[in-house]
């Protein structure tokens, strides 16, 4: 039971991070390799708020989310939209966006290294135990999971129960057809890309409450988010959540029973198994 709940707590945070990349890749068609750097920026914001003002790091969410949204909106319109306009097909757009965001990730890492240095950062906040089902868990992990679940639930309702969500789903399925029914595809894509970046930054703030991090750790979470998105099915929010929980459970199981150093190997093994037996992802559709 301890392994199960610990894995679910970790998987909930992974789900939030992966949902950001799922929105960007599934709707805007941008494979954002700088997604992890948005997460690290959110983590630094939580660290700064707590250490500088001695208040809850969750206060950082009130400015991290809008600032990350605005920053990613500008990135899409200034850097990525020209690539979208010149791309002749989806394959070319994916290649161009991978190269552009890969370079952007180095720029963001350099900026954070210049601002914060190369040291590791952590802080102790709500590191007290809380008893659940007869076992003790850190309060910071439990609260982070609860907040991540609320955000994930809100995003799911936004995508599936609102008019904006209907437009987002239409663009995800077929951008050309969506344009024929008076949907502003470029506006929806920019909005979704910005929303994905804001979600990733929020996930970073939550992670900072119990994880030691540095300026260059973003690539690890970019890889994990990419694994989750492909495992769950590109553009499918349900798939991202289920795949994230499965990854969290797998990593916790390996770290507890084998070796914490093998957690990344466990993620890749799970990824390979999904590709072998269900290449379209858990909730993806087979190509006709």
From TrEMBL:
The keyword Cell membrane applies. The chain crosses the membrane at residues 6-27, 34-53, 59-79, 99-122, 142-159, 188-211, 264-283. Pfam families: BPD_transp_2. GO terms for molecular function: transmembrane transporter activity. Keywords: Amino-acid transport, Cell membrane, Membrane, Transmembrane, Transmembrane helix, Transport. It is a multi-pass membrane protein. GO terms for biological process: amino acid transport. The keyword Ion transport does not apply. Its main location: membrane. GO terms for cellular component: plasma membrane. It comes from the Bacteria. It is found in: Cell inner membrane. Belongs to the binding-protein-dependent transport system permease family. LivHM subfamily. This is Amino acid/amide ABC transporter membrane protein 1, HAAT family (TC 3.A.1.4.-).
């Amino acid at each position: 039971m301890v392994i199960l709940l610990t894995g679910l707590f970790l998987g909930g945070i992974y789900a939030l991070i992966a949902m950001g990349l799922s929105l960007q890749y599934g709707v805007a068609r941008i494979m954002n390799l700088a997604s992890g750097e948005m997460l690290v920026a959110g983590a630094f914001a939580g660290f700064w708020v707590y250490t500088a003002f001695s208040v809850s790091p969750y206060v950082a969410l009130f400015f991290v989310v809008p600032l990350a949204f605005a920053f990613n909106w500008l990135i899409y319109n200034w850097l990525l939209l020209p690539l979208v306009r010149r791309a002749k097909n989806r394959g070319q757009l994916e290649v161009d966006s991978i190269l552009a965001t890969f370079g952007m990730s180095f720029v963001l890492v350099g900026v954070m290294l210049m601002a914060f240095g190369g040291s590791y950062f952590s802080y102790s906040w709500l590191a007290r135990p809380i008893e659940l089902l007869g076992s003790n868990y850190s309060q910071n992990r439990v609260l982070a999971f609860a907040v991540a679940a609320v955000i994930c639930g809100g995003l799911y309702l936004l995508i599936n129960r609102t008019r904006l969500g209907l437009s987002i789903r239409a663009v995800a399925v077929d951008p050309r057809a969506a344009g024929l029914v008076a949907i502003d595809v470029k506006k929806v894509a920019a909005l979704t890309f910005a929303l994905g970046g804001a979600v990733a930054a929020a996930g970073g703030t939550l992670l900072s409450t119990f994880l030691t991090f540095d300026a260059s750790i973003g690539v690890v979470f970019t890889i994990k988010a990419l694994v989750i998105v492909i495992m769950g099915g590109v553009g499918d929010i349900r798939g991202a959540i289920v795949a994230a929980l499965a990854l969290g459970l797998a990593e916790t199981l390996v770290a507890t029973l084998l070796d914490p150093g093998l957690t990344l190997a466990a993620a890749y093994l799970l990824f390979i198994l999904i590709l072998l037996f269900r290449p379209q992802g858990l909730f993806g559709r087979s190509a006709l």
